[in-house]
Amino acid sequence: MSSLQTLSSRISRLNLLQKPSLTFPLTSLKSLKTHERQTKGPTWSPLRFSPLSNRVYSSKNVGQIKMSAKEDLIVLGIETSCDDTAAAVVRGNGEILSQVVSSQADLLVKYGGVAPKMAEEAHSQAIDLVVKEALNKANLTERDLSAVAVTVGPGLSLCLRVGVAESSENCWSLQSAHCWCSPHGGSCFSSQHLDRKTQVNYYILLIERDLQFPFLALLISGGHNLLVLAHNLGHYTQLGTTIDDAIGEAFDKTAKWLGLDMRRSGGPAVEELALEGDAESVKFSTPMQQHKDCNFSYAGLKTQVRLAIESRNIDAKIPISSTSSQERNSRANVAASFQRVAVLHLEERCERAIGWALKIEPSIKHLVVSGGVASNKYVRTQLEQVVKKNSLQLVCPPPCLCTDNGVMVAWTGVEHFCVGRFDPPPPANEPEDFVFDLRPRWPLGEEYAEGRSDARSLRKARVHPSLTSMIQASMQQ
After folding, report:
1. How far is residue 271's CA from residue 288's CA, in Å, rounded to a whole number?
2. Does pLDDT of 181 surpass 60?
3. Which top-rank group of organisms is this from (predicted)?
4. Which tens digits make up the pLDDT trace of 88-125?
């Protein structure tokens, strides 16, 4: 995989402590020429409850952007779908001009997870500073931007609306185009979030320039597990998804029950402790082995872990740093055994998904893995073995781009902007009490027939049409 050093990147974190930026050089910026655009049809209808036909969403309305012009694009990406406030500025050639993340780690420790109302308040307090810092680090102002991309779903609606409101304000002040993005990813698009469902492929494309459609993508994060076949930009087939709890949630709960330090989130804490334990010492059952599909379930494994911890009289109120060596070893064994089975579940699902994907798209060569859990070294090692067995290549972003970030949103915005999928800036008289059509539950693609499972317990109410179906509908009009 290409090294992150091929990118010109600057990253900083804003929170109680100011952390140093990564020392990647920032190249000089060319002056951006303003590209005049004429939009047809009604203005500013992106998130209202209106049909897609009323949106400036098709390339036939604005034309394709030439590659030479693409390099001059500068897009601000804003991400507030869950617990971190993030913004980044990315150039159309893939150069990361800046990236800023305001962490809510202290809130995670205090509440033992994400508290939506508290997260919303933290986003509201941080968003202006984060966006301003991202622009300052890129040596730009709002007037230099070509477009603003923002996550509108999936995610927590209370949190999503903070980022959408901020992006609207920026678009109004500079009258730039607006790209509505989904994080999936992460990854949390210009219409959707691969975590957090769809963005995975975009920032992977940014880093691994040899990656071409089609490819198989796996999203593993605190809120999602997702296996999708990416046929092309905006065209995805969902092979498997989370039916209850995601792997990141299982890592977080295990860390909490083991009394680990949650300030870095549960995943890294469990991974570190697991290195000291015996992964075969606790016999956990692998989830969903009776279901021959690609869906994921971690609720049962969480229960197994909780019962194992209780049977060993492990007191989570006593931090691991204060325990005896024997007690520490007991906790390490639980951590290692949990991690082995949790990842084994991923391996089995990916193995089956690769077979399905090759039947649909025989030319795929890559499995792209993204989301916060993708930074786990054990996960990468095990998945590397799976792809080699199937003559594929594993592609993972650097750890700094695995968790929620503005880069994935900005790059998604670049890709969709270049094919004309964006909305015009909001009118100056937009009412202050306007309610945006946020999409907290927004599928990335249509389900693969063999992927439908009787075990699915996902609620179907208030699920928006998938990103793929929306784009395909707009292209037919």
Report:
1. 23
2. no
3. Eukaryota
4. 999 998 899 999 999 888 887 777 778 889 989 999 99
Compute the distance between CA of residue 2 and CA of residue 395 in angstroms, rounded to an integer: 9
- Determine which helix (DSSP H) or strand (DSSP E) holds 75, and give its type and residue range: strand 74-79
Contact 177/422 with Cβ under 8 angstroms? yes
Q: How far apart are CA 13 and CA 86, in angstroms?
A: 9
Q: How confident is the model at residue 52 (pLDDT cuts 50, 70, 90)?
A: very low
Q: Please report where in the chains the tokens 């205090």 appear, as a residue.
A: 110
Mean pLDDT of the chain, nearest integer = 76
Q: How far is CA 258 from CA 166, 254, 255, 275, 305, in A?
A: 39, 6, 5, 15, 10
Closest to 443 (Cα-Cα) out of 192, 158, 201: 192
Q: Are 227 and 217 in contact (CB under 8 A)?
A: yes
Read off φ and ψ for residue 236, nearest 5 degrees. -135, 150
pLDDT at site 113:
72
Among all chains, which residue has been given the structure tokens 């966006």? 131
- 115: Cβ contacts below 8 Å, ≥ 6 apart: 107
Contact at 8 Å (CB) between 245 and 302? yes
Angle between helices 116-137 and 157-174 (to 10 degrees): 30
Question: Cα(42)–Cα(36) distance, rounded to whole angstroms?
Answer: 18
Q: Are 430 and 172 in contact (CB under 8 A)?
A: yes
The residues near 210 (Cβ < 8 Å, ≥ 6 apart) are 2
Task: Check: CB of residue 414 under 8 Å from CB of residue 92.
Answer: yes
First to last CA, the chain: 40
Please state, in angstroms and rounded to a whole number, the distance separating the CA atoms of residues 447 and 243: 13
Coil, strand or helix at 139 = coil
Q: Which has the higher per-residue pLDDT, 308 or 211?
A: 308
Helix (H) or strand (E) holding 474: helix 467-475
What is Dmax (Cα atoms) for the chain? 70
Task: Give whole-number Cα distances, 23 to 27, 232, 268, 332, in Å.
Answer: 12, 34, 23, 35
Q: Is the pTM of this model over 0.85?
A: no
Query: What DSSP line would sit under 204-269, residue for residue?
Result: HHHH-TT--SSEEEEEESSS-EEEEEEEETTEEEEEEEBSS--HHHHHHHHHHHTT---TT-HHHH
Smallest CA-to-CA distance from 119 within 152, 170, 163 is with 163
**What would the 3-class secondary structure string for 21-66 be?**
CCCCCCCCCCCCCCCCCCCCCCCCCCCCCCCHHHCCCCHHHHCCCC
